[in-house]
Automatic annotation (TrEMBL):
Highest taxon, organism lineage: Bacteria
Pathway note: Lipid metabolism; fatty acid biosynthesis
The keyword S-adenosyl-L-methionine belongs to this UniProt entry's keyword annotation: no
Role: This protein is a component of the acetyl coenzyme A carboxylase complex; first, biotin carboxylase catalyzes the carboxylation of the carrier protein and then the transcarboxylase transfers the carboxyl group to form malonyl-CoA.
Protein's name according to its UniProt entry: Biotin carboxyl carrier protein of acetyl-CoA carboxylase
A cellular-component GO term for this protein: acetyl-CoA carboxylase complex
Pfam families: Biotin_lipoyl
Species this chain originates from: Chryseobacterium cheonjiense
Length: 161
């Protein structure tokens, strides 16, 4: 089987909306899987990426400024340290719902268990379900719906207790 045949097979699988195709000969085997083919996950709106303007670092504060701000930041950081972060495993667009007319996967206060789907990240027209790697309660959702996310970007804070 040459590359043209493989490309034609891939086109056939995408048009047929099947989830998996296996092709075997005595010396060749190929499996093509589409994770969500034929499911109801379809977003009509095109993904538009907006980049925020880069923030210029502020000039150092004068020595006479009170040191309360760093203390507040340290307190907030220590407060968040008891939570586990669910991070994005890829670059793409973050969606809280499986499709625009469905309910969100999780809300703040919901209990999640290992393997529960918490969101979908669309990358190159593929919708990848992101599953929780921890059990606990969702404390905070750190990303807005339908916004671009980066690899390893925090998405959720979970209280494992």
């Amino acid at each position: 089987m040459d590359i043209k045949d493989i490309q034609n097979l891939i086109k056939f699988v995408s048009k047929a909306e099947v989830s998996e195709v296996k092709y075997k000969t005595k010396d060749f085997e190929i499996t093509i899987k589409t994770p969500l083919a034929g499911s109801e996950v379809a977003y009509a709106q095109p993904a538009v990426y907006h980049t925020a303007p880069q923030q210029v670092a502020a000039a150092p504060a004068p020595a006479s400024a009170p040191a309360a701000a760093p203390a507040e930041k340290a307190e907030a950081a220590s407060d968040d340290s008891k939570y586990v972060t669910i991070k994005s495993p890829m670059i793409g667009t973050f969606y809280r719902k499986p499709s625009p007319d469905k309910d969100v996967f999780v809300n703040v206060g919901d209990e999640v268990s290992i393997g529960k789907t918490v969101c979908v990240i669309e990358a190159m027209k593929l919708f990848n379900q992101i599953e929780s790697e921890v059990s606990g309660k969702i404390i905070k959702i750190l990303v807005d719906d339908a916004t671009p996310v980066e690899y390893d970007q925090p998405l959720f804070l979970v209280d494992p207790s």
